[in-house]
């Protein structure tokens, strides 16, 4: 018993599209495939790979410039025992030509 009204199909298609958009927006992997019998299957794989840590200026090119700091985490003032526990990748694959850079650091603490 298939509905004849076009609005039913429009609502169904919009609802499926909204659900898929929400899955992608929330960072999940959704796989749509055809099985051996020819039936289409949708499979929610779980959370997508999340990048942990900080990545700053990857592959950047600094040419004829003066830069104060390139830092993954910069802590100014406050507690001197503040720290960041995670992966920090700073200026990976970067190039410097005719430039002045004061500091390239993962964590820079300054102040009290």
State the gist of this model:
By secondary structure, the chain is an alpha/beta fold.
Describe what you observe in this structure.
With 112 residues, the chain is an alpha/beta fold. 18% of the residues lie in helices and 44% in strands. The chain contains one helix and eight strands; from the N terminus they run αββββββββ. It has one helix spanning 6-25; strands spanning 28-34, 40-47, 54-56, 61-63, 66-76, 88-90, 95-97, 100-110. A two-stranded antiparallel ribbon has the order 1-2. The chain is elongated, with a radius of gyration of 25 Å. The N and C termini lie far apart (74 Å).
* Helical proportion, percent range: 10-25%
Q: How far is the N terminus from the C terminus? A: 74 Å
Helical stretch count?
1
Alpha-carbon Rg, integer: 25 Å
Please write the string of helix (H) and strand (E) elements.
HEEEEEEEE
Strand order of the largest sheet: 1-2
Mean pLDDT: 78
Which stretches are low in confidence, meaning pLDDT under 50 for 5 or more residues running? Answer: none
Oligomer: single chain
- Helix vs. strand class: alpha/beta
What general form does the structure show? elongated
* Largest sheet geometry: 2 strands, antiparallel
Strand content: 35-45%
Provide the fold topology:
Layout: H1 6-25, E1 28-34, E2 40-47, E3 54-56, E4 61-63, E5 66-76, E6 88-90, E7 95-97, E8 100-110
Parallel strand pairs: 3-6, 4-7, 5-8
Antiparallel strand pairs: 1-2
């Amino acid at each position: 018993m298939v509905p004849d009204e076009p609005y039913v199909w429009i609502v169904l298609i919009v609802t499926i599209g909204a659900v898929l958009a929400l899955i992608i927006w929330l960072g999940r992997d959704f796989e749509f495939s055809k099985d051996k019998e020819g039936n289409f299957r949708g499979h929610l794989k779980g959370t997508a790979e999340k990048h942990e840590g900080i990545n700053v200026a990857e592959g950047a090119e600094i040419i004829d410039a003066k830069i104060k700091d390139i830092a993954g985490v910069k802590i100014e003032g406050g507690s001197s025992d503040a720290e960041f526990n995670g992966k920090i990748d700073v200026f990976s694959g970067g190039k410097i030509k005719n430039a002045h850079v004061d500091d390239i650091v993962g964590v820079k603490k300054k102040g009290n």
